[in-house]
Design brief:
Order of helices and strands of chain A: HHHEEEHEHEHHEHHHHEHEHEHEHHHHH
Largest interface: A-B, 109 and 109 residues
Radius of gyration of chain A: 22 Å
Strand order of the largest sheet of chain A: 3-4-5-6-7-8-9-10
Shape of chain A: globular
Oligomer: homodimer
Structural class of chain A: alpha/beta
CATH architecture of the largest domain in chain A: Alpha-Beta Barrel
Chain lengths: 416, 416
C-alpha cells in the first residue's frame, strides 16, 4: 500500500488529506503539497479522525502520560489519557515504564480517540530491566508491536553517535543529557560499545513505519536541561543528522516530525532558534517540549513553559509538548495533567495569533463580556467555561467590581 | 522639605537612593541620575525599605487587593495583602470599595512592609455612593488623607478629556472603557458636564504629592479590554497627555509612573508597543497591567498574562500588575492571589533575563538539579520551594522517571 506521502507526491488527494484540510480550514491542495514536501505530516489512527501537524496548520499540543518504574497506578494513567483528550490535547504519548504495560496500552487506546505515540525503547528497557540484556532485536520487536497495535507515531533517537556523546562529555554541560529516550539510547551504545542502534537499523525501521504509514518522530537527545546550557555543537549535530535522516525517510515515503529545541532555553533565544531550526530542517514539522525560559519556576513550570511555548509557536514551532506543574518533581496527578494541557493550549493559541492573526473565539469572548453574558463567554473559553463557572460560583452579578462596574457604568454613554 | 527628585537633580545621593542602589546592585550614581531624569522612581514607606522602579532596575510586581461593593470580607482582604507580600509582590494596591474602608486600610498597612498604593476616586465614590454627590473637593480630600496616611503612590486618571471620550464613543470598541478608576473619572465628567477633575486641580495634587514625596501614577483609562480593540487614537492621546503631565510633575519635583499598554494586546504587538511607549514617555517608568495576549483563557488569565507580561517586561516595561485566575469573574481568593503573584513574578523574571541576562538563581537550580539535591533547588525556587515540596511529597527519589532516570543514568559517563 502506498503511504500518504507517496500518494501526495503523485498528486493524489486522499480522504485523510481532505479531512485535515477541512478541520484546518485550508485548501486540499495546500495539504497535499505540504505532505508531499514534508512540511506537513498526517497522524492516522484507524477508525478516528486524522490529525495534521506542520507548517501553515494550527499549533498542536501533546500530553505525555504513563507510569514510571516506581509509580504505578494503571487506572490513574488511563484517567490521565482521558482527561488530556477532554481538555484538548491533540495527541497523547504513552510513556509507561511500570506495571502491566500491555494492559495500560490497550486501555489508553480504548480511552482515547486522538493519535497516540510511543517511545519503544522505554518499554524495551522496562521489559529487559538492564541495558546489557536489552538487544537491538528486542527494541525492534517492541517498535514493530507498537506500530501494528495502532500507535500513530513512534519516537526514536537516531540523531547522534558515540562521537556526539564524547562532545557532550567534554563540554561539561550543567545538566548533561536530560532526554529519557536519548539517555537510554546513549547508555545502550556505551554499554554495548556500539554505534546508535536506530541508525544501524534505520532502513528496517523505515520499512516498519512504511507498512502502516506511521509517522517517525526523530527525538531530541541533546536538548538542554538548564537555561545555562547553550544551543551547542551536539544539539546542532543532532539537528543536522536528523534532517538527513528525515530526507531519507521522506524519500522512502515515510512521514517525519523533527523534535528539537525542547528543554530549557533563555526567552530571548527561542524565536531566533526556531527560525534557524526550521531553515535547517527544510521547514519540516517542528516538535518542541516546553521550552522553559527560566529554571526558578519550580512547581509552576507549566506557566513558564507557556511563555516558552508561545514564543516558540509564534516563531514557527508546529507542535508543543506540554509541561505539567510536576515537571522535574514527580509524575503528574490527573489534575496536573489538566493544568498542563490547558497551559500548553494557551501557548499554542497565542502562537497561532502571531502566526495567523486573532481568532474568532477571542472576538466572541469580548462581545459576550461586553454584554456580561457569562455563558456566552464560557462557550468560547478554552476549557468550555468549567473553571470560569467554578470561580464565578452562584452569583448572578460579577462580584469583582460589584455595582461599580466600569463596563456597566460606561455602557449607556458608549452605546450597546 | 525637598523631594528625592529635587535632591537627585541637585546631585545629592540620599539614603533611599543608596538603599535602592544596593538592593538593585547598580551604582548610586545610576540611581541618582535615573531619579533626576525621571526614568526611575523610588517608592517610600516610612519605616520600611524604599523600592526603586524604572529603567535599568529589576521588573517589579504589583498585587491588587481590596473589597468590592458586593463582596466584603475584611479579614480575607488583609490576608490577601499578607499573602501577596509573602509570595513576592513588590507593591500592593488597596482597591477596597466595600465594608469598613478605614479599618481595612489601617490593617493592610499593618499587615505589610512593602509600598502600598491607592486610587482615591474609588474610596470617594464608595463613600459618596453616586457620581452626582461626589464633589471634586471630596476626591481631593480622600487623596490628601491617603497621602498623609502613608500611602506610597497615588493613582489618578488625568490623561483624557471629554473630547477623548467622544472619540471612544465614535470608535465603537468591543469593550469600551474597562479601567475602573478611568470609568469613574469619565462618569464624573459626564455627570457634571465638566472637564477631567484631576486635570483641573493638577497643581494642587502636585502640591499634596510633593509634601510627602508620594509617587504619582498616571492611570491608563483608555487601555483595551479585548485583543480586538486596537492601540487606537484615544490610547495614544492619553499617553501623550500623561507624558506632558509627567513632565510638569517632574519639574515640580514629583516622581511619576506612567500606566500604559495594560489590558488586552495581541502577542505580536506587545514588544513594539512597549518600545514605542517608552520612546514617547521619555523612558519614564512604565506600568503595565497584564497584558493579556488572548481572551479565551477564561479562568486561566494569570497564565495568559504571564506570557504578555514576560513579553512586555522583556521589551522594557518596568512594573507589572498581576492578573489572577479570577480576572473578569470574581474577586480573587487568597489562594488565587498567591497564584497571580507567582505567575506575574515568573513573567518579571523572564523579562529580566531578556533585559539583563540569566540569573544566578537559574544557574543554581540547574546545579542542584544535576545533583538531585532537592532542598538546594527549592532554596532558589521563586516560592522558596513550597509547591515543589508539596508536589514531590514524601518520596526520597524522583518518581518521575524512577530508576530509569536520565540524569542518573548518564551521570557516570558525563562526570559529576
Amino acid at each position: 500500500m502506498k503511504t500518504l506521502l507517496e500518494q501526495a507526491r503523485e498528486g493524489l488527494i486522499t480522504e485523510a488529506m481532505k479531512a485535515v484540510a477541512k478541520s484546518e480550514r485550508v485548501s486540499e491542495k495546500f495539504i497535499r503539497e505540504g505532505v508531499a514536501e514534508g512540511r506537513i505530516v498526517i497522524l492516522q489512527r484507524p477508525g478516528f479522525s486524522p490529525l495534521g501537524i506542520g507548517k501553515g496548520l494550527r499549533t498542536k499540543v501533546n500530553a505525555n502520560i504513563g507510569s514510571s518504574s516506581d509509580a504505578v497506578d494503571e487506572e490513574k494513567e488511563i484517567e490521565k489519557a482521558r482527561v488530556a483528550e477532554k481538555y484538548g490535547a491533540h495527541t497523547i504519548s504513552d510513556l509507561s515504564m511500570g506495571g502491566n504495560l500491555a494492559y495500560l496500552r490497550v486501555k489508553i487506546l480504548e480511552a482515547t480517540t486522538v493519535p497516540v505515540s510511543s517511545v519503544p525503547i522505554y518499554q524495551a528497557l522496562s521489559e529487559c530491566r538492564s541495558f546489557e540484556k536489552m538487544s537491538l532485536s528486542k527494541i525492534l520487536k517492541v517498535l514493530r508491536r507498537d506500530v501494528y497495535q495502532g500507535i500513530s507515531s513512534i519516537v526514536i533517537h537516531p540523531g547522534f553517535t558515540l562521537e556526539t556523546l564524547e562532545k557532550v562529555r567534554k563540554r561539561k554541560r550543567i545538566m548533561g543529557i536530560v532526554s529519557k529516550g536519548g539517555s537510554y539510547t546513549a547508555m545502550w551504545m556505551l554499554t554495548h560499545r556500539r554505534e546508535n542502534p536506530f541508525l544501524e537499523v534505520f532502513d528496517e525501521i523505515l520499512d516498519i513505519a512504511h507498512s502502516r504509514d506511521v509517522v517517525l518522530s526523530l527525538g531530541n537527545t541533546m536538548r538542554s536541561g538548564s537555561v545555562y546550557d547553550e544551543l551547542d555543537e551536539p544539539q546542532m549535530d543532532e539537528l543536522h543528522m536528523n534532517t538527513e535522516l528525515a530526507e531519507k525517510a521522506n524519500e522512502r515515503g515515510v512521514q517525519v516530525i523533527i523534535e528539537g529545541l525542547g528543554g530549557h532555553i533563555p526567552a530571548g533565544n527561542i524565536a531566533p532558534s526556531v527560525e534557524k531550526f526550521n531553515k535547517i530542517t527544510g521547514q519540516r514539522p517542528l516538535y518542541v517540549a516546553g521550552p522553559l525560559p527560566v529554571d526558578v519556576a519550580v512547581g509552576y513550570d507549566h506557566i513558564a513553559a507557556c511563555v516558552g511555548g508561545a514564543l516558540a509557536a509564534g516563531a514557527g514551532a508546529d507542535y508543543l509538548c506540554y509541561i505539567t506543574p510536576a515537571e522535574h518533581l514527580n509524575l503528574p496527578t490527573v489534575e496536573q495533567v489538566k493544568e498542563g494541557v490547558l497551559a500548553c493550549r494557551i501557548a499554542a493559541h497565542i502562537g497561532d495569533t502571531v502566526k495567523y492573526g486573532l481568532s474568532e473565539a477571542d472576538r466572541n469572548i469580548g462581545l459576550h463580556r461586553r454584554k456580561q453574558d457569562w455563558e456566552g463567554q464560557f462557550f468560547h473559553a478554552l476549557d468550555g467555561g468549567e473553571k470560569g463557572r467554578q470561580i464565578r460560583g452562584e452569583t448572578v452579578m460579577c462580584k469583582m467590581c460589584g455595582r461599580y462596574c466600569a463596563l456597566k457604568i460606561m455602557d449607556q454613554y458608549l452605546g450597546g
